Amino acid sequence: MDAASGDERGTTERVLTLLGLLQQRQLWTGPELAERLGVTPRTVRRDVERLRALGYPVHAGHGVGGGYRLGPGKDLPPLLLDDEEAIATAVSLLAGAGGAVAGAGDAALRALTKLDRVLPTRLRHEVRALSGSVESFGGGRTPVDSEVLMTLARACRDGVEAGFGYPSGGEVRQRRVEPYRLVASDRRWYLLAYDLDRDDWRSFRVDRMTGVAARTWRFRPRVAPDAATYVQESVASRVYPHRARFLVHAPADTVRAQIPAAAAVVRPRGDARCEVLSGGGDLDFVLMHVLLLGHDFEVLDPPELGRRCRALAERLLSAGASIPPVTGPADR
């Protein structure tokens, strides 16, 4: 490489670094930028002119409080990503924003904001539509194939049917669905979709899908349930043979902090009480979990669970009958 090429590459890298600094903070003084870049203020002014020549609206203020700042994003030139690259980047960032990458939520949201600023109008609209296809009620930590996630997100965005294999009854069956939303739980990614063969709404675990493909047939949007609520209720109760409802005498926020989002749905009932909906393979198991929360509670459904409460109370009293009661000063 000759000296001229090396100088040109160095200038390009410095100008890109300058652009990154201007995106990080609203206002920089010339001396601050010069110090960060290791150049003179005069070189900073030249690099600012290079950015302006590329279409970046860098504004300069004079006098006390003056400095350099990057103007509104509407005038920024297109980001050098093709459509597929931009969509893939957005899906990855959405995964981070939804909690799929531990600790990366805030950084992913900042990156999404920057991506949205520099995309051309056409692509910005596509990414925003894609963002509207993803919801969350927790995190999303089980790894999934990014290509599968991207395919489903685009199908939600474009309103086209999707097909995939899904285990059911010990075998993998083909499903045809109208996809509506991707939802990230505290453990996994789910798809809320209308199952065309079963003529009803269903939630599907993305990590259990095989052969995922978007079709060309568009569908007319139906009135859909709230995606995050529907999937959370499915994960917490619908998939289990037994479901139970409790009225817990504690604020909803307190109980939510004690129960994982995937284990139960907690709805406020005023300021001091809440309703807990959960499910399990055994009602006694569900009952013990609510008992161990440490709050007074009442069984709302099913009636059978109320009878089990009384039976359990009798067993507990019987188990402690041989132990003398603790006596206080008043009993002596």
From TrEMBL:
Keyword annotations from UniProtKB, A to Z: DNA-binding, Transcription, Transcription regulation
Entries under InterPro entries matching the protein: CBASS_pafABC_assoc_protein, DeoR_HTH, HTH_11, PafC-like, Tscrpt_reg_HTH_DeoR_CS, WCX_dom, WH-like_DNA-bd_sf, WH_DNA-bd_sf
Keyword Transcription regulation in annotation: yes
Recorded superkingdom: Bacteria
Domain HTH deoR-type: 11-66
Signal sequence annotation: none
A GO molecular-function annotation: DNA-binding transcription factor activity
Protein name: DeoR family transcriptional regulator
Source organism of this protein record: Planobispora longispora
